[in-house]
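Supplementary Note 3. Input sequence used for the single-chain structure prediction.
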Amino acid sequence: MEKPKGRDRGRTFTGGSAASGDRSCRGKSRGGFLALASALAVLFTSVFVSTAAADEGEWYSSGPFGGYVEVMAVSPGFAIDQTVFAGTYGGGLYRSTDGGATWKDVSLGMSNDYLYAIAFSPGFATDQTVFAGTSGGVFKSTDGGVTWSRIDSGFSTSAIYSLAVSPNYPTDQTVFAGTSGGGVYKSTDGGANWSAAGNGIINNYIHALAISPAFASDHTVFAGTNSNVFKTTDGGANWSAAGNGITNNYVYSLAISPAYASDHTVFAGTKGGVFKTTNGGTNWSAASNGMTSLTINAVVLSPDYASDTTAYSANSAAGVFKTTDGGTNWNLVNSGMESTNPLTLALSPGFDSDHTLFAGTRDMGVYKSTAGGTNWSAANTGLIGSTIYSAAVSADFGNDHTILTGTFGSGIYRSTDGGATWSAASSGLSNRQVRALAYSPNYANDGLILAGTGAGVAKSTNGGASWTASSGGMSQIVYDLAFSPAFASDQTVFAATWGGVYKSTDGGANWTAVNNGLTKLNIEAVVISPAFASDNTVFVGVFNDGVYKSTDGGANWTQVNNGLTSIAIMDLAISPNYAIDHTVFTCSSTSGIFRSTDGGANWTQVNSGLDNKWMRSIVISPSYTSDHTVFASAKGVVYRSTDYGVTWSALGSRLCSGYVNALDVSPLYTSDGTIVAGSDGGLYRYPARSYYWSWYDNVYMRNWILMANPSTSNDLKFKLAIAADS
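The predicted structure, written as discrete structure tokens, is reproduced below.
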């Protein structure tokens, strides 16, 4: 699935796209503008009408910055070009040319946003060649990473876990690729053609490759698999097991000494700690003393390892460890690093003088140290790699312009300018996996927001600035939340968990399981009738068990699957006019969208226009009765129907190649047209244009913002102030 051409996601758009979304007018309505002011207003409007029109069909993302960074690589000429790459899990590939200060999406030409491996040509300064391994194949750039082409001729599998480029690449053009299930492949023409080169490897899941610095003479490569380390000394023609002494055979990372020709040293990062060999793989010994976690995601060695014996490891649920005695002892070096889940490490080639290294994390993006790991600082400006599980537009969006997002592991982010900028909003959260967010229907008065986390429910009463646990009686992973429309009086909320349905009647303080009639408890979605106060109707979607309905407030449930051809339910949406039209939608992970117009008694598949039926989320316009509009998300795309769900078409360009996991619609959709979509690569907003009204005493001001490059905050702001006569 290829990204839209001619657009740099989240940054510069053709036509001069603006940053945040439409905002409504606040304060008093004024008339009798001065003639001059009116003329200026006409001129001003004419300047921007074309801009808005140009952006009408586009999605826009400006964050949150950070997220899931799977792999990093530093240029061989870093001292001069300051180039670093960061590959995200679902958000594409990013490049920095200022040492990590700012990042730019450079995924143009890539058909997959899930990055596993990045490898530079040692001649990068002149050939500008970089390779990238993704879940959709190998890609190559010969312009420093600006554009990419797929190079997979000869491959029998598409997912590439690891890459190794010959130290003599400018002359021998040799590259090795480790695949997911297909073994090792080799190219001797710069990636144009590949052939299998894994004879002797008994496990074909190749997580790591390490090539000898003296490859031209010793032809040695090591491979880390799910079942040990393998070694070739004939350039990949034949391999043999070389992991004697490694007690955990899941090998995730390999690091070969720069002086391998003389010291024969290799480190292996495994699911059971670090292991080291000093005889080229004949024997290994444990080298994890001092580590508090033994799941090793990455090991890297100093370019001057022969003299400084320095190495680093990235350990799950612990952080970064450092050794200065060749692995005999390790110390945690996490100061300044908020994440304890580093996945990848990359050292500057000039580490002996600049002491620079980078860490990519599972949840908080990139960190950089210029003190050899003693201190770290976040380096994420412009890098949009967060996996968004949930998104919620404020119930008071017209006034507070707030959007919240819940992420895979970095908690909650908040924007108070309609999505133009973001800040972390996880204070008080005990668990940062946030799959559900919901605003109270009485938000203007109670200020209540609930978040479904990996350990129950949290609540905020200050717009998401801080959170407290609100999970009495329930500690499940929460997948969805639904407030009663009459919450101000009945204080009722439902929670969907993979431990069943929970109900609270005290505003979320305490919860009780309500599962009578359910045959499975893996609940993905819950929706409440807008007339709940009188009809007591609730629907839940159960993964691999279909839809259930309750007409007594959740006390009892009945399965209502008639007409569903798939019971892999992912989401539900209920009409705001349910009391009259009895309409409910559901979407499945395999068979698209279904609609019921009789309260769930019967379902009809409504997939006309869908070219992708791997659905994730569905939401109904608040003005459904008049605009007949429904939105649904799938892999890489959001669909819209304006005829009650009968037919569908893609809304704007494709967002990414990953899943669009969450959708929400502005409560002012009729006037502002705002939709937000949370994806595997950040939060998107539609439409892209931005303007809002503000009231300042006797000045009526409309602010239009053109974000030329939001990732570096080089905003071009145009303001028109028109004085109102009294």
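Confidence is low (pLDDT under 50) at residues 1-55, 689-726. The two ends are 58 Å apart (CA to CA).
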